[in-house]
């Protein structure tokens, strides 16, 4: 039987960060990935914070385009209000190349990565995990890191977490179109082949939705997500949600005639840590398995990496459960999500999303028309301004 100091389940950003930390600390580390290779289950791409990723994994980050312009569109009616600004430090990357690079860095540090291997069970003895069972045999170990993603079957079967309820998850649907880089530059008025656009689109009718558009070197991804509970209540199927999104944004006409490279659907957790266990004995959760997706910026990569590092440290020393939980709570990256999640539920109850979008749209329209008194009335009406101020104070 194979024997390792630590076994990491999953070779995504969280798993590779954990493996990098463990291997760097001298632990004999095995990473088991059920896909053909790291990133194969997330082919299209994501937006990342470059400085954060390189501070952990070093140079060599495979970037598709640097985000030179970010756009936010708020729909309170059929005519959106849009803002554009010019961020620094953001880039789009292909998940296949990105995840393979992260994994290669952990391998250079000494971790062993074995793909095409599914972990089916965890072996326990006297309350501690002693190994894992895979479809290719058993492996004994002193600690385990579960970076298995949102569908955390091992964490659920081990009694560490429960299955997500409809009001605790978002259903997303995404299209990826193959488009020549010159056409992408022309379509979105980009200055070069290395320049990119990131676009966020928020709408509250008939259900709260958050859409996105990312430009890559020779492709564009567009997608939309909505709370599963809202889709069930309104009897909207995921494909119908995507059809509506493509129509009201005008993307249906914009991408007409281009080849559809990829269609995918994914569940994104809206609930998780700190309202759940983070570990059990010598088994530690990180990334999507802990529900660590920023509900306001939609960033799941950075908290995945950060929690992976913390899980690696915990697995290195077989950290007690309370100590690992405390390390997550006091971490700046993770605590921000914990604070936002509690406030998010307040902002998005009942008709609140429609109210906020209407208020913001009216404020911007009043500003553009020079109606400063109107802005004052918009901000103090109802409880909107109180909620915003409360959010800012509690996020300090």
TrEMBL record:
<dbReference type="Pfam" id="PF12831">
    <property type="entry name" value="FAD_oxidored"/>
</dbReference>
<keyword id="KW-0285">Flavoprotein</keyword>
<dbReference type="InterPro" id="IPR036188">
    <property type="entry name" value="FAD/NAD-bd_sf"/>
</dbReference>
<protein>
    <submittedName>
        <fullName>FixC protein</fullName>
    </submittedName>
</protein>
<dbReference type="InterPro" id="IPR039651">
    <property type="entry name" value="FixC-like"/>
</dbReference>
<keyword id="KW-0274">FAD</keyword>
<dbReference type="GO" id="GO:0016491">
    <property type="term" value="F:oxidoreductase activity"/>
</dbReference>
<keyword id="KW-0560">Oxidoreductase</keyword>
């Amino acid at each position: 039987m194979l024997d390792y100091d630590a076994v990491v389940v999953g070779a995504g950003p969280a798993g590779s960060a954990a493996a990098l930390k463990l291997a760097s600390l001298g632990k004999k580390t095995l990473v088991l990935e059920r896909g053909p290779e790291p990133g194969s289950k997330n082919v299209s791409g994501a937006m990342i914070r470059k400085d954060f990723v390189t501070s952990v994994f070093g140079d060599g980050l495979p970037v598709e385009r640097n985000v030179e312009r970010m756009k936010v569109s708020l729909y309170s009616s059929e005519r959106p209000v849009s803002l554009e600004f010019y961020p620094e430090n953001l880039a789009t990357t292909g998940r296949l190349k990105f995840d393979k690079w992260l994994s290669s860095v952990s391998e250079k540090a000494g971790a062993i990565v074995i793909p095409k291997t599914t972990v089916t069970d965890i072996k326990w003895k006297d309350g501690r995990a002693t190994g894992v069972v895979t479809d290719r045999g058993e492996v004994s170990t002193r600690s385990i890191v579960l970076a298995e993603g949102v569908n955390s079957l091992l964490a659920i079967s081990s009694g560490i977490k429960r299955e997500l309820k409809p009001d605790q998850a978002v259903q997303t649907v995404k299209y990826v179109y193959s488009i020549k880089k010159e056409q992408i530059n022309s379509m979105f008025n980009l200055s070069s082949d290395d320049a990119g656009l990131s676009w966020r689109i928020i709408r509250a009718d008939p259900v709260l939705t958050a859409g996105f558009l990312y430009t890559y070197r020779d492709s564009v991804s567009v997608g939309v997500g909505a709370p599963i509970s809202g889709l069930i209540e309104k009897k909207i199927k995921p494909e119908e949600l995507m059809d509506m999104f493509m129509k009201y944004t005008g993307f249906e006409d914009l991408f007409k005639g281009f080849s559809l490279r990829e269609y995918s659907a994914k569940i994104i957790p809206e609930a998780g840590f700190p309202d759940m266990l983070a570990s059990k004995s010598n088994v530690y959760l990180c990334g999507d398995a802990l529900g660590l997706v920023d509900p306001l910026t939609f960033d799941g990569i950075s908290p995945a990496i950060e929690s992976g590092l913390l899980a690696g440290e915990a697995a290195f020393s077989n950290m007690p459960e309370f100590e690992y939980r405390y390390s997550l709570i006091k971490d700046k990256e993770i605590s921000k999500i914990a604070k936002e999640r509690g406030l998010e539920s307040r902002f998005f109850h009942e008709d609140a999303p429609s109210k906020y979008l209407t208020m913001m749209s009216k404020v911007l329209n009043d500003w553009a028309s020079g109606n400063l008194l109107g802005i004052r009335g918009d901000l103090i009406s109802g409880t909107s301004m109180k909620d915003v101020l409360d959010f800012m104070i509690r996020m300090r």
